[in-house]
TrEMBL record:
PANTHER family: WD REPEAT-CONTAINING PROTEIN 75 (PTHR44215). One of its GO terms (molecular function) is RNA binding. This is WD repeat domain 75. It comes from Junco hyemalis. Pfam families: Beta-prop_WDR75_1st, Beta-prop_WDR75_2nd. One of its GO terms (cellular component) is small-subunit processome. Residues 750-779 are annotated as: Disordered. Keywords: Nucleus, Repeat, Ribosome biogenesis, rRNA processing, Transcription, WD repeat. It is found in: Nucleus, Nucleolus. Residues 753-779 have a biased composition (Acidic residues). Residues 328-651 form the WD repeat-containing protein 75 second beta-propeller domain. GO terms for biological process: positive regulation of rRNA processing; positive regulation of transcription by RNA polymerase I; rRNA processing.
Length: 817
C-alpha cells in the first residue's frame, strides 16, 4: 500500500489450508540482460538461468507446499515466498540466503470462516531474522481460490477479485468496495463465470477471462452504475490466464487449445498466435523488462517465449500422465525414473536435475484427443541388468479383444538412444499382466531371457536368436510356454542369481528352474490371489515373499519349501532394494498409507512409518545412490545405499529423507562448509577420494588422525563465510562471535586430556616420594651417555616438570590461523 508508506503483503488465506495453485511462475532481469526464472515446486523455490538453461539453486526452508512467490518491489534481487506452513520468507535468490522469516498464521483469525479471504499483513522491521506478523486485516472476503483470480491495479491503488459471476474492486485510499455481477444464465453457449483477471499496468482497465472463452475489458469501474466493458473472443473454451506486456500495449491469453494469443491495442482484429505449444496453458508470466514471457502447461512444463512471439526453450519436469500403467522403473544406465509420459511415450526423468532427460516414442502413432476413441497406449516396461535392452508392451483400450504388441529395443552408443530391434504382434491372446528380464550381467547372449505373463493362463520365455544376415543382427523369439492348472498368470520375477523363476497363478506361486524349465515347487496361502511377489537378496536369497489381496504378507523358505512366517497386512506395494536385503512394503488402511521395511530373515521390521501420507501410494522404486550416504541415525541405515521414491494416486512423487525436519529447514549457509558449496567437478571428486583414501591409510597404520580446527568450525564462522556482504550485520556485532569461535572450550574434555590431568596430579602428589628414584635414574642415564661418547646438559627437577607441562599443553588452536 503506497499511501501508507509501509511494506505490506496481501495473501490468500484458506481455512482448510488448501490451494489449487500447484506451481507459480515469476521472472526477472537483474543485471546485464541475464534472465532468471523463479518457480515454486513442492516446498522449494527453484532458480533457473534462462541464458545457460541451468538450475542455479534451490530456496529451501519451507516445511510445506509453497503457494506463491513475488519479487520484492524495492529490490529485484529479493523474492518473497508464502507457504502452507504459515510463514512468509524473504530471500536473496542469487545467493540462496534467507533474509527474513515472517510468521503470520493465526488460527483464531479465521477459525469460523468457511470461505477464502484476502488478508493484508504488515511486514514488521527488526534486527533478527525471525519476525512475527501481528497486524492482519481482511481486505476482501469470499474471494476465489486461485491467485489468478486476484490482481492489483495501476500503482497498486486498488485490488480486483473475481469469483463465479461476481467482480469486486476495492480502492485502498478511499476504502471503497464496488461489486459487479454478470448474468448466470447460459444462453447460446455462453458462460459468464470468471476464470482469471489481470489489470492494465498504466491505465484503469481490468481484463477478465471467462469460462466460455471470452475476454472482457472493464472501464469506468470507479462508479457502480457507469461502468462499461468490451469483449474479445477467440478461445473456444475457458481462458486459463491473462497477462499484460510491460507497456500495456499487448495482452496475452492462453487456454486448453495450447495456443498463446497476443492481442494488440485491445482490438479483436489485431492478434497474433503461437500454436502447437504441446499442452494446455495454465499460467502466463512476463519478465520485468518485457523482453521474455513464460507459460506454464498442464504437463508440468514451462515454455520461454520471446517478445516477438517466437519459442525460445522449455523446462520439462515430471509429466503427469493420465494413468501410470508402466509402474516406476529405474534405468540402470542413467539411474533415471522411467514411466508413462505423453500418450504413447516413455519419459526418462532425472532425479538429480529434476528435469526430463528425454522422451521415447513407443507407440509411434499420432494421439487423437477425442473422448470415447479407443487408442493404443504403453502398459509395461522392463530393462535388462545393464540397461542395453528395453522391453515394452503396448495395447489398445479394448477390453474384450485388445491389440497387443511386444517390442524389444536396443541401446546404441552412436545415437545415444534406443532403437527398435524386434516387434512381436499378439505375444499373448489376452492382456499381459507382468514382464521381467533375468537379472544377470549380460556376459553372453544366452544369459538374456525375457518372461511375460498374461491373462491367457500362460507365461512365455523369450530368447535372442541370431539371424542369417551378414551383419550379425539378432532378434527375439519364444522359447518356452508354461502354465499351471489353467489359472491366469499374474506376476513373475527372477531370483538374484537368475537360477529360479517365480510365477504366480491366482492363489498359487510356482517356482521354475530357469535352465530346464522344470517346475520345482509351489506355494499357496489362501484365501486371496497373489498381488505381489519378490525374492530376497544377498543373505536373504533363500526366501520368497508374497502379498495377497486378502491382506496377508507371506515369507516362504526355498530350502525347506515351508512357510517361514506371515503377517496380516494389506500390502499394495512390495519393492525390494537391489543393493541390500531390505524390502519395503506399503500398506493402505483406514485411508492412510504406512511404510514397513523388513528383512525376510527377521520377524520384526527394521523401520515403520505410520501415516506416511494421506494419499494412496500406488508405486515405489529404490534408486541406487552414486555413493553410500553417511547416516548417523540407526533407523535410516537401510537407506544408506539406495533412496526410496513413491508415487501417489494424485501423481505426486515423494521420497524419504534421512535428515530431521530442523536439518532440512536450516539454510544451506548454516550447514555446508565452503568446499561443499562449490560445484562438483572431476577434480573435486578426485581430490575428495584422495583425502578419504589417505585418512584410511593413516588409520590402518595406527597414526593418530589430526583434525583441523577449520574442519570443525563453529556455525558462526560458517555463516560469516557464506553470507553475502550486503546482508551482513556490522563488524562490531560479528567481532565478539568470531573471537569466541576461535577459543577452545574445556567443558567437554576428551578421555586423553582427563588422563593427562590425572597423571599430572599424581606426579605432584608423589614428587617427594619419587625424588630419590629420579636421582638414581639420572645417574644411570648419564653413565650410558658417557659410554657413547656424548655430553649432554643435565636438567634440574623443576626444569623437567616445566618440560612435561609444556609437552602436554594443547596447541591445536593455532591451526585455525
Amino acid at each position: 500500500n503506497k499511501y501508507k508508506q509501509e511494506v505490506r503483503l496481501v495473501l490468500l488465506l484458506s481455512p482448510l489450508n488448501t490451494t489449487n495453485q500447484i506451481l507459480s511462475v515469476s521472472s526477472t532481469t537483474p543485471t546485464s540482460k541475464n534472465w532468471y526464472l523463479l518457480y515454486a515446486s513442492g516446498d522449494f523455490v527453484k532458480v533457473h538461468s534462462v541464458n545457460t538453461e541451468e538450475t542455479l539453486g534451490l530456496l529451501c526452508g519451507h516445511a510445506d507446499l509453497v503457494t506463491g512467490i513475488q519479487l520484492n518491489p524495492h529490490n529485484h534481487m529479493q523474492v518473497y515466498s508464502s507457504s502452507l506452513d504459515g510463514t512468509i520468507k524473504l530471500w536473496d535468490f542469487m545467493d540462496g540466503i534467507p533474509i527474513k522469516y515472517y510468521c503470520w498464521f493465526q488460527t483464531d483469525f479465521f477459525l469460523w470462516s468457511d470461505t477464502f479471504q484476502l488478508v493484508s499483513v504488515k511486514l514488521t522491521k527488526g534486527a533478527g531474522q525471525d519476525l512475527e506478523g501481528k497486524e492482519l486485516s481482511v481486505v476482501l472476503d469470499g474471494v476465489g481460490a486461485s491467485s489468478k483470480q486476484i490482481a492489483f491495479g495501476r500503482e497498486d491503488s486498488y485490488v480486483v477479485s473475481v469469483k463465479d459471476v461476481d467482480l469486486q474492486v476495492y480502492f485502498f485510499k478511499r476504502k471503497l468496495l464496488n461489486r459487479f455481477s454478470l448474468s448466470t444464465a447460459k444462453t447460446k453457449g455462453g458462460d459468464n463465470r470468471f476464470s482469471c483477471v489481470v489489470c492494465h499496468p498504466t491505465e484503469d482497465c481490468i481484463a477478465t477471462g471467462h469460462a466460455d472463452g471470452k475476454i472482457r475489458l472493464w472501464r469506468n469501474f470507479h462508479h457502480k452504475k457507469g461502468y462499461t466493458y468490451s469483449s474479445l473472443h477467440w478461445h473456444h473454451d475457458t481462458v486459463m490466464d491473462l497477462a499484460y506486456s510491460l507497456e500495456g500495449t499487448r495482452l496475452l491469453s492462453g487456454g486448453v487449445e495450447s495456443v498463446l494469443v497476443q492481442w494488440h491495442n485491445e482490438s479483436s482484429c489485431q492478434k497474433d498466435f503461437l500454436p502447437r505449444l504441446g499442452s494446455p496453458i495454465e499460467c502466463i508470466s512476463m519478465s520485468s523488462d518485457g523482453v521474455l514471457c513464460c507459460t506454464l502447461h498442464t504437463d508440468n512444463r514451462i515454455s520461454i517465449i520471446n517478445s516477438n512471439l517466437r519459442f525460445s526453450r522449455s523446462i520439462q519436469g515430471l509429466i503427469k500422465s493420465r494413468d501410470v500403467k508402466t509402474g516406476l522403473v529405474v534405468d540402470p544406465r542413467t539411474k533415471a525414473l522411467v514411466l508413462n509420459g505423453e500418450p504413447g511415450h516413455l519419459q526418462f526423468y532425472s532425479l538429480q536435475s529434476d528435469q526430463q532427460l528425454f522422451s521415447l516414442d513407443i507407440v509411434q502413432r499420432q494421439y487423437i484427443h477425442q473422448a470415447g476413441l479407443k487408442q493404443s497406449d504403453l502398459v509395461k516396461v522392463a530393462f535388462s541388468a545393464r540397461g542395453t535392452w528395453l522391453a515394452t508392451v503396448e495395447e489398445s483400450e479394448e477390453v474384450a479383444d485388445p491389440e497387443l504388441q511386444l517390442k524389444l529395443w536396443f541401446y546404441t552408443e552412436e545415437t545415444q538412444s534406443f532403437a527398435l530391434n524386434t516387434r512381436i504382434n499378439t505375444p499373448h491372446d489376452n492382456h499381459i499382466t507382468d514382464m521381467c528380464f533375468r537379472d544377470m550381467d549380460e556376459l553372453g547372449d544366452d544369459s538374456l531371457i525375457l518372461v511375460t505373463t498374461g491373462r491367457d493362463c500362460v507365461f512365455k520365455v523369450w530368447v535372442m536368436v541370431g539371424d542369417s544376415d551378414p551383419e550379425g543382427n539378432v532378434s527375439w523369439s519364444c522359447d518356452f510356454v508354461g502354465s499351471y492348472h489353467n489359472y491366469q498368470a499374474t506376476n513373475c520375477c527372477f531370483s538374484e542369481d537368475g537360477s529360479l523363476l517365480a510365477v504366480s497363478f491366482e492363489e498359487t506361486v510356482t517356482v521354475w528352474d530357469s535352465l530346464t524349465w522344470d517346475l520345482k515347487c509351489t506355494f499357496c496361502h489362501p484365501p486371496g490371489n497373489i498381488r505381489n511377489i519378490c525374492f530376497g537378496r544377498q543373505t536373504c536369497s533363500k526366501y520368497l515373499i508374497g502379498a495377497t489381496d486378502y491382506g496377508f504378507l507371506c515369507c516362504w523358505n526355498l530350502l525347506t519349501c515351508a512357510l517361514e512366517w506371515n503377517a496380516h497386512l494389506n500390502v499394495v506395494v512390495l519393492q525390494p532394494d537391489p543393493l541390500s536385503e531390505h524390502i519395503a512394503a506399503v500398506s493402505w488402511l483406514s485411508k492412510e498409507s504406512s511404510l514397513f521395511v523388513f528383512k525376510p530373515s527377521e520377524p520384526w521390521p527394521v523401520y515403520i512409518q505410520r501415516n506416511l501420507c494421506k494419499e494412496k501410494i500406488l508405486l515405489a522404486a529404490f534408486v541406487p545412490r552414486d555413493e553410500p550416504e553417511t547416516i548417523s541415525s540407526e533407523k535410516y541405515l537401510w537407506l544408506r545405499k539406495s533412496q526410496l521414491f513413491f508415487l501417489t494416486d494424485t501423481q505426486e512423487l515423494m521420497t524419504l529423507s534421512t535428515k530431521s525436519l530442523e536439518e532440512r529447514l536450516t539454510p544451506s549457509s548454516k550447514q555446508l562448509a565452503v568446499e561443499e558449496s562449490l560445484p562438483v567437478t572431476p577434480f573435486s571428486v578426485l581430490l575428495g577420494k584422495h583425502r578419504r583414501q589417505q585418512a584410511q591409510e593413516d588409520t590402518d597404520l595406527g597414526k593418530p588422525v589430526v583434525h583441523n580446527k577449520q574442519e570443525q568450525a563453529s556455525p558462526a564462522v560458517k555463516e560469516l563465510l557464506h553470507t553475502p556482504a550486503h546482508v551482513l550485520p556490522s563488524a562490531s556485532f560479528l567481532c565478539t562471535i568470531f573471537i569466541n569461535s576461535l577459543l577452545i572450550s574445556k567443558e567437554n574434555k576428551s578421555a586423553e586430556e582427563v588422563a593427562d590431568e590425572v597423571e599430572m596430579e599424581s606426579e605432584k602428589a608423589e614428587d617427594d616420594s619419587d625424588e630419590e628414584d629420579v636421582t638414581a635414574m639420572e645417574q644411570e642415564d648419564t653413565s650410558h651417555i658417557e659410554l657413547l661418547g656424548e655430553i649432554t646438559c643435565k636438567l634440574s627437577k623443576s626444569q623437567e616438570k616445566e618440560l612435561r607441562k609444556i609437552r602436554k599443553m594443547d596447541y591445536s588452536w593455532i591451526s585455525a590461523f
